[in-house]
Design a protein that fits this description.
The chain is α/β, with parallel strands linked by helices and about 220 residues long. Helices cover about 40% and strands about 25% of the residues. The protein folds into two domains: about 1-120, Response regulator (Rossmann fold), CATH 3.40.50.2300; about 125-220, Arc Repressor Mutant, subunit A (Orthogonal Bundle), CATH 1.10.10.10. It is elongated. It binds calcium ion (CA).
Length: about 220
């Protein structure tokens, strides 16, 4: 994730840059509105952290300029508690979120991750196939009204299948995605875990939602909720 921070108070800017770096997020910093706008218009960032009161172009003018050019980059406004009017104007102009100074860096990181996820179209928190639902935030799995307990690995296997209903996923794809490293393709890790998962998501003998394509892989059935 690469972020642009536009903030003229050097102390805050470096606090943010350092905090983001600790969370594994790279940030460019601009200390005035003109540089900020130029960078934001030029480079594809995953999100912008935009102070409102800036020398040169102010934050709202940057936001307006970007949105007029149909630039959809997610924007989080940094606002002072007193800047209610500016905050509302910013949201109307298409800011995705705001954070009030002073703030904890963890909160900014969480909001950045949320807006970046939304921008990538991963905003959904619940995936449902038939009467099977998984909640990507709480990690809760339910078949009808029955709660299903899964291990972390089983959950990510199920999530991977449910994100692509109707699509065949090969054993290799599943191994790479869920286990994340090179396994002997002869391993039966996938098959064993699919069997276990199948049993768990059919706690009361419900219909099977995972199809086996012999010699190819697996597919989650496509059922409208
Ligand atoms: Ca400022």
């Amino acid at each position: 994730m690469k972020i642009l921070v536009v903030e003229d108070e050097k102390k805050i800017a470096s606090f943010v840059k350092k905090g983001l770096a600790e969370a594994g997020i790279t940030a460019d910093v601009a200390h005035n509105g003109d540089d900020g706008y130029r960078l934001a218009a030029m480079q594809p960032y995953d999100a912008l952290v935009l102070d409102i009161m800036l020398p040169g172009r102010d934050g709202l003018s940057i936001l307006r300029g970007l949105r007029e050019k149909k630039n959809p980059v997610p924007v989080i406004l940094l606002t002072a508690r007193s800047e209610l009017r500016e905050r509302l104007e910013g949201l109307n102009l298409g800011a995705d979120d705001y954070i009030t100074k002073p703030f904890f860096i963890e909160e900014l990181v969480a909001r950045l991750q949320a807006v970046a996820r939304r921008a990538r179209g991963e905003g959904l928190t619940i995936i449902q196939i038939g009467d099977l639902t998984i909640n990507l935030v709480t990690r809760e799995v339910k078949r009808g009204a029955t709660k299903v307990e899964l291990t972390a690995r089983e959950f990510s296997l199920l999530e991977y299948l449910m994100r692509a209903p109707g699509r065949v996923l090969t054993r290799t794809q599943i191994l790479e995605h869920v286990w994340g490293y090179d396994f002997d393709p002869q391993t039966n890790l996938v098959d064993v875990n699919i069997q276990r998962l199948r049993k768990k998501i059919c706690p009361n003998g419900e219909e099977d939602l995972i199809e086996t394509l012999r010699g190819v892989g697996y597919r989650c059935r496509k059922i409208e909720p």
